[in-house]
Amino acid sequence: MTQHVRNGWYLGAWSDEIGRTLRQRWITDIPVCFYRLPDGTATAVEDRCPHRRYPLSLGHLDGDGTLQCDYHGYRFDAAGVCVGVAEQADRPKAALRRFPLVERDGALWIWPGDPDLADESLLPDTSWLTDPGWTHVHGVVPLKARHLLLVENLLDLTHETFLHPTSIGNAAVAATPIDVTVHGDRVDFSRRMTGIEAPPFYEKSCGLTSPVDRWQDGEFHPPGIFVLHIRIAPTGTEEPEGFHMRVLYGLTPARGNETHDFYALGRDYLIDDEELTEFQHKQQLAVMQEDVDALEAQEVMYATDPGGTVESSIRSDLAALRGRRALAKMLAREQRAGHGTVSA
């Protein structure tokens, strides 16, 4: 049984995914209906009509923003309050559950738990997504594996050495230890590789030859946000010189042991080079597919494990173990408070 933290921010959708067409997306085992009001404001409501639980995403929007359930005609205004039933005189006392939603830098962040606890200051800085000095690509990849496996995948990047040797990985990643720091629930790590061989992806996208210095600085903002800061430069080059990239991952539990793997890949160099952008996007998707294949295979092993297996960990697991602990603490807080948590 997988439990999801609900009192936290998750990436619910990219801004360009949501318009005047109703869109369903499952988040922490809750069906959510996203849409925009006539003034462009994004809205997220539980995708169940309070009459007979029909998906509201199968209904329609009127020009004034009224949402109609197309099973029996219940109609809801912009605040989610029932304003009547089509073709009938009834005006039942019913309302939709609305979720806190923050639209920032082209992303829609949703808080599926207690709305009174939603704190925008917990969101990381994503201003680079709209910074004119940067360019980026973004999307979402479906993953048939539990959220925790993706969290641990990103907090232990030594897997790059073994899963991604033809693109972003080489021996230096696994050979270089990390420094881990914890700030409340947040988990950060830093890996500084110096005088190493340039991985194939960076040779091609930065025009670098070995030796190079490569930095990986990761931030996990639990329960579902990971930001990776990357710097690569000829060995000995001082900051701020060098090539800088950032990767944002939205790790959003979907339904059961499935996860939405949102991503944005950005850079601060050659920002008008469309050929480079296309190359990097293809590489990003290829790397993510390798991760998806591995995590889905891993999910099968977890789901069928009868128990009793003794887990082994090493020093490079430290950030992942801290991330696991942070999620467990958040779940425990929700359970003590009696809200937010769900078993899948």
UniProtKB/TrEMBL annotation:
Keywords: 2Fe-2S, Dioxygenase, Iron, Iron-sulfur, Metal-binding, Oxidoreductase. It comes from the Bacteria. InterPro entries: Cholesterol_7-desaturase, Rieske_2Fe-2S, Rieske_2Fe-2S_sf, VanA_C_cat. It holds the Pfam family Rieske. Residues 9-110 form the Rieske domain. The keyword Iron applies. GO terms for molecular function: 2 iron, 2 sulfur cluster binding; dioxygenase activity; metal ion binding; monooxygenase activity; oxidoreductase activity, acting on paired donors, with incorporation or reduction of molecular oxygen. PANTHER family: 3-KETOSTEROID-9-ALPHA-MONOOXYGENASE, OXYGENASE COMPONENT (PTHR21266:SF60), IRON-SULFUR DOMAIN CONTAINING PROTEIN (PTHR21266). This is Aromatic ring-hydroxylating dioxygenase subunit alpha. It comes from Streptomyces phyllanthi. The lineage of its organism: Bacteria, Bacillati, Actinomycetota, Actinomycetes, Kitasatosporales.
